[in-house]
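Ops channel
N.P.: pipeline sanity check, posting one input/output pair.
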């Protein structure tokens, strides 16, 4: 009998793992009986299942590097895992996890009765790194122009983004908050733009300085002032020209010119070596 259960008949059959256990053998005749206990062990080849060796595993950068992969078998199998594709460039021999450990590993369980294989994909999570900001088209912006500031960072899980920047009403953030667009740059938009990338493992920030250049505006103002001065000069010159021409043609009002030094210009005739000046009147 097995473990006090029902009596089993003798005979040959295929052994299964369920046959393992303690058996009690009792021999009996009319003179008495003898009892002996026997422990039966069933050996079998290795197997690797999802419970002892998940097909997808998550590591965190900086934690101890250990691939948890257990196999069943009797005798107990030896399990060895190696990263696929790293025959020429193996991962660093580091006691702690690095991003270079990410990839697919093949685990092999072996005992005297055979072996079993299982592939395991390892992802390595890490805090945000390499935060970079880019101003398009340039960090030197002309007043009234449009520009955008983009933020990029590496990290797993994918980082979320936050901003610290000069407050202004003409800001528009992207849906994922990775960039900010500015339409019609003004003096309020100049200053330091700081982007912070965050995930559950940490955060990191980066900054860029934006300058709003008003030199074109100053140039336009100067050109405007110069134009005004030029216009005044042209007006004066034009008046002088018209006046001189009028003087030559005698187109003055007689009453206004009478008794003034301009009366001589109204009518001038050359006579020999002398000049005769007079006012030419017309009948009403």
């Amino acid at each position: 009998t097995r473990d006090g259960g029902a009596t089993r008949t003798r005979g040959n059959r295929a052994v299964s793992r369920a046959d393992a256990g303690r058996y009690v053998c009792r021999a009996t005749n009319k003179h008495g009986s003898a009892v002996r206990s026997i422990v039966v062990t069933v050996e079998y080849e290795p197997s690797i299942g999802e419970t002892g060796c998940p097909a997808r595993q998550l590591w965190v950068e900086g934690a101890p590097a250990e691939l948890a992969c257990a196999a069943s078998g009797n005798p107990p199998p030896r399990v060895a895992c190696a990263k696929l594709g790293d025959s020429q460039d193996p991962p660093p021999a580091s006691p702690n996890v690095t991003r270079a450990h990410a990839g697919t590993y093949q685990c092999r369980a072996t005992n005297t009765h055979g072996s079993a294989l299982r592939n395991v994909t390892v992802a390595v999570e890490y805090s945000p790194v390499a935060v970079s900001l880019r101003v398009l088209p340039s960090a030197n912006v002309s007043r009234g122009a449009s520009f955008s500031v983009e933020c990029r960072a590496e990290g797993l899980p994918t980082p979320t983004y936050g901003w610290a920047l000069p407050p202004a009403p003409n800001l528009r953030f992207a849906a994922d908050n990775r960039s900010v667009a500015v339409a019609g740059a003004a003096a309020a938009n100049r200053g330091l733009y700081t982007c912070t990338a965050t995930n559950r493992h940490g955060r990191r920030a980066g900054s860029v300085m934006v300058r709003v250049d008003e030199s074109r505006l100053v140039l336009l103002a100067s050109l405007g002032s110069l134009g005004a001065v030029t216009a005044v000069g042209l007006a004066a010159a034009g008046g002088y020209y018209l006046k001189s021409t009028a003087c030559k043609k005698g187109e003055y009002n007689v009453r206004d010119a009478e008794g003034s030094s301009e009366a001589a210009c109204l009518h001038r005739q050359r006579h020999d070596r002398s000049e005769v000046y007079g006012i030419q009147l017309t009948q009403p």
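N.P.: looks fine end to end. The chain has three helices and 17 strands.
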